[in-house]
Amino acid sequence: MPGNHKPQLSALAGVCRRLDGARHRVAELEAQRDALIKALRGNGVTGSAVADCTGLSAGRVTQIAQSNGATPVAKPANAANRSRGNGRAK
After folding, report:
1. Helical axes 47-54 vs 6-42, angle rounded to 10°
2. What is the pLDDT of residues 69-84, one digit of tens each?
3. CB atoms within 10 A of CB 77
4. pTM score, two decimals?
């Protein structure tokens, strides 16, 4: 399809930069949340009380409270993986 796609490519690059920044901020906030969950559970607050406050399941609260470090954060699939047909939606 002929045409000038430069403005759209520029807009896409800008959105991708903002998305990368948002992912970084989400990771920071999840780390803060997880530290607070560990502290609360360590001070005797029940998992169900923490779950009610966070919207997480009690099981997820237990996983976070018992974890030894950073919780893995989902990474976006790269374009090469999507083009190889790894089962992800395109």
Report:
1. 150
2. 655 554 445 544 444 4
3. 11
4. 0.68
